[in-house]
Fold:
Amino acid sequence: MTGAHRPGAAHQPGGAHRPDGARRGRDRRAYLLPPRPGAPRIDGPRPTTAVVGGGIAGLAAATALAERGVGVTLYERETYLGGRAGGWPVDLADGSTATMSRGFHAFFRQYYNLRGLLRRTDPRLERLTALPDYPLQHSSGLRDSFRHVPRTPPWSALGFVALSPSFGLRDLRAMNPLAALPLLDVRVPEVYERLDDTSAYDFLEAVRFPSRARHLAFEVFSRSFFADPRKLSAAEMVLMFHIYFLGSAEGLLFDVPRAPFPAALWDPLADYLRRHGADVRTGTVVEHIARTPDGGYVVTVDGGERRHDTVVLALDAAGLRSLVGRSDRLGSAPWRERIQRLRTAPPFLVTRMWLDRPVDPARPGFLGTSGYGGLDNISVLERWEDEATRWAARTGGSVVELHAYAVRPDASRDVEQKRLTEELHRVYPETRRATVLDVRHEWRQDCPSFPVGGYPDRPTVRTPEPGLVLAGDLVRTDLPVALMERAATSGFLAANALLERWGVRGQTLWTVPNQGRGAALRALARWGSG
Structure:
């Protein structure tokens, strides 16, 4: 562990608000991971840290360090912050300006550390709003919902089965309960020792999970990783099932920002960092990092150089490979080789359309889909985002966003974009009559890959150099976290590792429980694995 104790060693009830934003939600079994004891702030000469990458992980690291008196310089190559949850302005055909992004993000209530980061500027999280449901629709006509499913395990699983049209008595009888026992007691890193060499697809085949329910209930987790279930580690999927379903009492409903990401989240956080003395440099590319004889680092940026005592690398897989490849004296040779083996998930497409007429008022703000070609979900942005709401009110139209995850790398972009629109027309037929006033297609391929058998090779927060740490959702944390929460948690862990060197107390962390909910279920899972 980096800067925190082993999960479970400090399980404490309660969850009162803390000055650093750390708190759990409604789940009384969530785990508190206190940092190592130390001074509240730097006492003496002010050390400096370069945080390379302004996504969630970099922002978390920069925040924890700046709050405790470290001289932070945050370098971000894009002109905006937030990484894969960032946004930027675009000029629409009607002359108005909108904020484009890389697509919908769900802020689940289990994201304790990410939400703690956001509380720095929004203590009551008033810039988030809850969506009333998480509906899932299959092309066969089946439709599932998490709105009325109980939030506390095991009633959450039993309630989903009872309420879901995807399950029938015949389906339940056909399942292999012995193969499903690992779901009952998920622990990190043990879940990887047991299941990392199995694909998510093969695990579900062994369980004999009903195919219809599999599309709706399980593939939503693999799609969250932009991955084909045949190539995704079963350990990642099972961990996701634990985080959102069987291990946490927070439920599967979620919040979304009331405004575009920059206005709701990252611009206020950038101002907060500056008030704590941080130098936030967007549109700045870090070209090279070199060790200095005194143990510090020289960061080369756009032809200039700046010395820092320590460095946090909070980059995506491609960016990390590239920078480490150019900085050939960082770390050790085996560590650099490990970084070069990192890979990205398949490409994905986000299409946002500004339509001249509204979609049916009964349509949900977000709909997960399966069986509709490459279409994975549909968002109607004016249901929650103020900018889209104003545009829709002014024009009488709708702002609709479509996602296609894990697109084949050799697929034709024009063909995939056209197919995505055709699938929208299948799901929401009224959109056939709409004129597209403007459209943006965002193609990206920078999400980390979590392949079968890949866990032991993932880099950790700590590196061979005490002054150099990593952060990001690609980083192994040995905690029950994933996606945006893994990014935020790893950022705080990276900051804690550096603060520990200076004798300063770091960020308090929370996670969902790192074990099954009940003693009987845990014993049953152990019996099955033995």
Residues 1-17 have pLDDT under 50 and may be disordered. The chain has 16 helices and 22 strands. The radius of gyration is 23 Å.
